[in-house]
# Entry
Amino acid sequence: MAQLYEHYNVGDDAEAQTMWSATTWGAQTFTPSVAHRIISVRLKLQRHGLTPGTFTVSIRATSVGKPSNGDLCVGTIDGDDISDAAGGEWWEITLGGGSNLGADTLYGIVCRGLGFTVTNFVGWRQDKDDATYAGGAALYSTNAGVGWSSAGILDDLMFEEYGPDESSGGGKSANMGNKMVAAGLI
# Structure
């Protein structure tokens, strides 16, 4: 079971047309309110064309409000499997072993498709009018993540980021209890 941390999943009214080539990438920055390990993200996506190919999502640290080079963790899904239904659908992308995120620190969810073309790509749904997520912003890059620009002052992309569910007994306290039982202390 995973625990939802940062998210912006309301006000979906448009599609960000930012990821239509191998060098045109999209990103949404976010700021965790508590430190945790990110293990997956859910993004609202829509396929265009029949064969966009591999859709890659990574988490990156930021510098001056923009994603920096170097992925902290990465996950992929087959873009060909994403629905082409109008309005898109939510897709979960597991991020390998995940990465530890600090509280009150800006990170970026960076998305790209190295096989994307103007007729075969994955669109990321957004709130284009009056977005209210204060912890980050929608960004795009036209040079494969080297430089980033704001997608719009009122734009936020649809995202949810997840970590392990600490309340389910899978955290450190449960492991400590198991060790104490094994040692005959309880």
Observations:
- The radius of gyration is 18 Å.
- The mean pLDDT is 88.
- The chain is about 5% helix and 50% strand.
- The chain has one domain: 2-182.
